[in-house]
Structures are given as structure tokens and as C-alpha cells.
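Problem: given the chain below (690 residues), write out its structure.
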Amino acid sequence: MQTIRFFALACLLALTALAQQKPQSQRDLKVEKDVVPEAPAKSETVKIPRSYALVIGIAKYKNLPEQHQLHYSERDAEAVYSILISPEGGNFRAENVHTLIGGKATLAGIRRELEEWLPSVAKEEDRVLVYFAGHGFVAQGQAYLAPFDIELSRIPQTAYPMATLGSVFGRIKAKWKVLLTDSCHSGAIAPDADVQTINRSLIDVTRSVFSLTASRDRERSFESPDWGGGHGIFTYYVVRGFEGEADENRDGIVTADELAEYVRTNVRAATEGKQNPTSDRSSFDPDMLLAYVPTHAAAREAPPPRFGALIVESNMDGVEVFLDDKSMGIVDKGQPLRLPGLMPGTHTIRGVKMGYEPDGPRDETVYPGQEKTVSIKILILRRRNKAAVDAFDKGMEFYSKGYETNYRKAVESFEKALAIDPGYSQAALYLGRSYNALFEEQKADQAFRKAIEIDPDYLEARASYAGMLLDVGGTDEAIRQLTVVVQRDPGNGMAQYLLAQAFRTKDQFAQSVEAADAAIKLNPSNPEPHFWLAESLRLSGSYEKGAEAYAEYLRLSDFDSKLAGKMNYYVLGFLAGFGKKKRAAQTDIWKDLRSLAYFGICDCQRKLKNYDAAIANCQKALNYDSEDPYIHYALGLAYAYKAQATGSMETLSAARQHFAAMLKLNSDMAEADYARKNIASIDAALRDRR
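Solution.
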């Protein structure tokens, strides 16, 4: 038995090495195909530091009466998150921006993110940003930020002290530190003297920090549906500034000084001096880079430092308004959309409603210090040319059959439909899906973008585009597209489970679980969110729950495999990161997913030391994909540990067989060396036994 013990140590070494890798690498191989870039190329003269952010927004507090609840703080936080992760904005990587919105913004959550996460990840040359929108209070002369679970009778025990915030910022090792706060709302509970204490405490948080607060001294900050469809006025201008409106010298860079001046000027003007955002210029580098917006740079003289506004009205409900090709929100009939804080000069405006011909694009001139009303008129119901519809229907016949030959024919039909009717967004969507199925990702990218350009509120196109991006590694852009979808339609189950996949890919397992749970709540019978829930549970160490979620996925997807041809798995990017190098039909993807689910159960049961269950499930996985080296490796480990527990030489031989199969299939895997060591140990054990 001594040799078996020696073997088990080698096996344990292999298992430990596997667990120490980045979790997704347990099934990942490199996919050899072009990757859609996640952001435009940066200018050689612009260096954007690695960046981390925490975004906090609370509108509805757990323990406050209705009259003291806020309206738009959570919407403000979502807007800040979106602009931070945009390549035409903050340029933060999505996985480096943590959010605590609504019920997640508890005192414990805020402490964890501020005091543990940020100090642990930020380095000397990095950029760190913290945004807070919610209530602020004073108790015993000290200022506090109010978390979701604050109790007014116990403020020092249940709120977050400004003094602690200052010391935390002092401990963070970063070149640039940014604090944006909107905590003294109009109608808030705190008296004016407390508002003054809060605002002064925010400015004095610490030196070397760009701290921009919504108001000063005893002033309140305002929120209203008049600002971009519903925002705090401070955050509205912060977001507009990050989008490039604060870039006064038009060099494509928004600096701390530019943002402070832009926000201060516009908020003061919009409130007739009642609210004055404040920052201490002596405490930060005025050239601190906050946003990089290369497309906003223009070869023209800087406009005068005054701003104007457009008031957009519409003849229909649900019209999306685009300003300079950026979505500014939805306008309804009788409820104009105010777009203040615009640079003087010519701007392009367009109104879009799906199923109708758009109004625009057309040029509108913004004059300094003036408001101009713009009328959007959606009049013409979009009609399809019969020949274009016939070509589209023919394409759908081929598309639904799967396999490369049919996808090629589908492409021809969809391209014909678009040639006849260039505004046929549905044809563009399915053209993108067909190219995606053929692995012609650059053409797929162009087609998806075309569908969104034709109908910007075509949420299905955005979600499908995100699915393709997940296929090719464009995870940040996928998250941006999906964020737009769920903000406009929280009930979009497809977007929710794609977000679950995207966050799983980024190792953001808690966010992945949350998105998967949301998708399951919307449609409990849909198998896919259960799969991504299982993946994130397993990779975060919740093996029992992970095994249960995999089993639920298998139960829900246990239909005749011929029906898999009707499931558009391939367009949803389900196999992103799993290294599948061929994809002949939808049915293949259905089989791959079931193989992955059985593999997941096998992995969970092995780590729970249920070796017989692990072996049984890995063998089921092999029934779907007998040439997956990871399954053979996991099966070898399961047999090896069972051999250690039982002393069975037969089981040990089975372990060797699967380690050898793994090496035959892929001898270059990171685990290959461990497999070889395990085989050597097994051979020695078998020789000694003879």
C-alpha cells in the first residue's frame, strides 16, 4: 500500500495545481480565430492607467419611511457604471468596476469593497474611482454616508464614517484617486447644519484626491425627471462630462480640471446658483485623466466656455433619441427630454422607433446660453418590399437547418434581402448570426452592427451581438451591450443569462450568479441560465449547489437531440472559452453543453470526495465527447482517489488509462506534466504489486 500512497501524493499535487489555476482554464483552450477588439486603438501619446472603481447607488432604503426615499440614485449609479466601462469614456475594464446598487449596498458590503478589495488590487501607477449616490447624515458631529441598511437611531453603528473613508483612501496605493459624491439631496432628512458638515467632510476626505461633491456648505443637491429622463443633476453632468462634453480643448481627454469646471458651470447655471458642485483644486493633479474620448477630438478651435441645451419632444411614445450617435434616452409624447450642457455648435440628432422609419439624422445648432426645442416626428410605418421579404424567408429556411452548406445559402439570401431593402434590420441580424455560425466573425460583427445602426432599440440584435462577442473574447463590449439591454428591459431573460456567462468568463462569480438567478426567475424552464449558475457556483467553491444546478440544466435540456437544431445555441456564445474548434450544427452544441454539464457534476462530486458519482458523471460526459482531454484527466483523478481509498489495483489501472488518453489527445495541456508523473507513479505501484 505504500506505493499507492506515494501515487496519491502525486495525484494530489496535480489536483492542487488544477485548482490554483484561473478557474476558467479548467476547460479552456485557445480558439484560433480573429478577436474583435474591445476598444479602439489608443493614441500613442495617451496612456490610460490600469483602473479600478466602486460605484454605489441607493434610492430605496430598507429602514426609511417613504417620504425620505430617493428616486434616481440607483439610475445614476447605473449610468456612471456604463460610462466608466465604455471605450468612449472612462476606459475601465468591466471586471475592475464593482457595483453596490440598491439592497447590495449594505454597510458590510461597502466596508468589504472599500477596505478590503480596493486596497488589495490598486498599485502605485493605477487610477481608483469611488462614486456614491444616496443619503448622508451627521451624528455626534461626525459625517456619515448612509448604506442601504442604515438605522437612524443608530447612525454611528450602521453608517459609514467619512473619517474612515479618508483613511481608506490614504491607504490605497494609486497615482490618481477620484471621489464623486451626491449625498445631500433636496428634501433630505438632515438639517442644513448637517449638510454643511457632510459637504466639508467630503472635500476634506484626504489629500491627493480629486473629490468632486454635488453641492457645497448648506446646499442641497437636486434630482428630477427633467435631466436626461430622470437623474440627479450632478450625476447627469458628470456622465455628460465623461462622454466628452467636458473636453473643452478638444484633445480627446477629459481631465479632472475640465470635469470640475464643466460640472460646476452647468449645475450652477441649471439651478440658478442654488447648487454648486465643489472641489479643492489644491488637493489633486488638474491634468488627471478621467476619460478618453478619441472620437470627440476635433480639429477646430475650442468653443466658448458656455453651454446650451436641446429640448426634445416627440409625437409618439418610446422614441429613442440619439445625439451625435450616442443614445440619450427615451422620449414619450407629452414628456420632453431635456439635454442640457451641450457644447455650442452643430450636433446631429436622430429619433428611432422600431418598426418605423427614423426621423433624422439631421443637424441642429446649439447656441451658448440658450435652449432650443427639437421636434421628433415618427410618421412612416416601415414597409417591407415583397422581394426582400421573400429573400429573408428563404434565408430562414436554410438557417434553421444548420450545417455549413445551409449557412452559406442563408447568407446569400439575407444579403439579397438587404440589397433590396437596406433598412431590413432583421435580415442584418440573421446575416450576423449566419456568419457567426460560419466563424466569419469580422463579417458577423459588421452585420450585427448594421442591425443595431438601423434599429438602435433592437434589443435582440444587441443581445445576439453580445453573444458573438463572447465567442471571440470581446467580453467587455459584450457586457456593455447587455447592460444597455437589461437597463431598457430588465425582463430580457436572454440578456440576463448572457450576462451570467460574461461575468463567469471574467471570474466575477457573484455577479454571474445574480444574473443567472434573474434569468431563472424570469423563465424557470429555460435550461441555459441553470448551466451558467452551475458554472459560477462550481468555480467559486459551492460544489453541492453547483452539482444541483448542473442536474437541473440536464433535466430541462433532456429532449430529443433533433430538437436541438431549433435552439440557436451557436448564436449565444455558449461555448466561449471552452476551446471548441468546430461547430457543424446546433445539435453539436447541444451535445457539447450536456458533456460540459456532466463534466461539471463530475468535478463537483470529485471535490466532495464522492468518487463513484464523479466517475459515473465523467463517463456520461465522455458519451457526448469522447475526445475531450479534460474529461479524461478528471476521470483519471477520480479513479486515482478511489484507488487511494480502496487499495484497488484495477481502479488504479483505469486511472492510468485515462491519464494516457488525455496525453494522446493533448500533450501540451498545463496538466500534462502531472498526468505523466501520475502515470509513472501508477506504473511503479503496479510493478511492485506484481
